[in-house]
Amino acid sequence: DFIPMAVPTILRILVPFAWLALPFTSLKPIAYFPTVVVFILLSLYLQPLTTVVGLFVSVAYITFLYITRKKAEIKPFKVNVTGREDGEVVLFCHGWPDRAELWAKTIPALEDNYRCVTYTLPHHAGREASESMWGLNFDESVSRIAATLQEELKKCKKSKALVVAHDWGSMLATAFERRFPDLVKRLVLVDVFFPPTPTHKRKWTAVLMMGIVYQYYNALTFLLQAIPVIGAPLADYMNSTFLRTIAKEGVRYTTPPDAACNYYYFYYHLNFIQEKLGLEKTYDERHQIDRKDPLPLCPVLFCYAQDKAFMFHNKSMIAKLEERKDGSKAVAFGPTWAERKNTKKEDRVGHWVQCNAPDKFNAEVRDFLARAGEPT
């Protein structure tokens, strides 16, 4: 009789924490959150006190850490410089979950004529004791990019640079260009092209859908690492589980990124909620950016892959880009999503355009940057 009596008690203890085992399954992120909701509801039913106390203590502790965090120091990133010493400066900005090595197939095509500058964002190559566990928010990131570029331009006695950016780096680069237009001559954006603000007036439904698909998962792993002892190992395992689903398209690093690099997903949704509730001004308002013309002020080359389930760009931005007379243009790569199934794997492009279609990408970038001296 002991075993039947013990089962309900064991279930009551285990169910509130059962969702922690989900990363060990083959669940995809889009199925992860509905499953977590089910477990939380079961937890509230089977063990209401344990669940409520556990959630309250965890949220309160993480909130306390966030409120009492130290602001990031605004300083230049550590950079790696290659190429022609007296060439025009090209600053490369990567996104998630990448690092400076992302540009390994791009820089060799440019370094004969340009001074190529790369950096790795905090925590993207492992946790860094010298950096806050909270990483960088969007304002801090843009300020550090500016500090980095200003330092490099000063070294080689130049006034402007060319910027090549991918993923979150593209969003940061567009915001950076609007805030510091005197520093940027031309801008190359890879696979992400939204107006120059991290939350850019999006609808609740659009942001919610993006969150459910994968962003809430990344934000959750970032926050979980704050829990003492078990937080970081659990968050890192969850992060690696998700990264394995996209590794076939992206860059494989000898040291896989850990959950500490997921901070932009947290700040993206935090800022969105704060702005919607009137608790925070929009990025545009904070930096006096006029939204009547949301495009970057300098000429832009936008390179994007067509063979993705959903796009990371705003179609209206491309239409406005193609109306310009300053040499700006958008270039599509790879087959369409409908054609993808009938396309060989080696011919697919995906989100990492510069890695999976390097020849065409490098040719487009070389041609675009070479025209930097032409009148616009």
Automatic annotation (TrEMBL):
GO terms for molecular function: catalytic activity. It holds the Pfam family Abhydrolase_1. Keywords: Membrane, Transmembrane, Transmembrane helix. The chain crosses the membrane at residues 52-68. The keyword Cell inner membrane does not apply. The keyword Cell membrane does not apply. Residues 89-198 form the AB hydrolase-1 domain. One of its GO terms (cellular component) is membrane. InterPro entries: AB_hydrolase_1, AB_hydrolase_fold, AB_hydrolase_sf, Epox_hydrolase-like. PANTHER family: CIS-3-ALKYL-4-ALKYLOXETAN-2-ONE DECARBOXYLASE (PTHR43798:SF24), MONOACYLGLYCEROL LIPASE (PTHR43798). This is AB hydrolase-1 domain-containing protein. It comes from Lotharella oceanica.
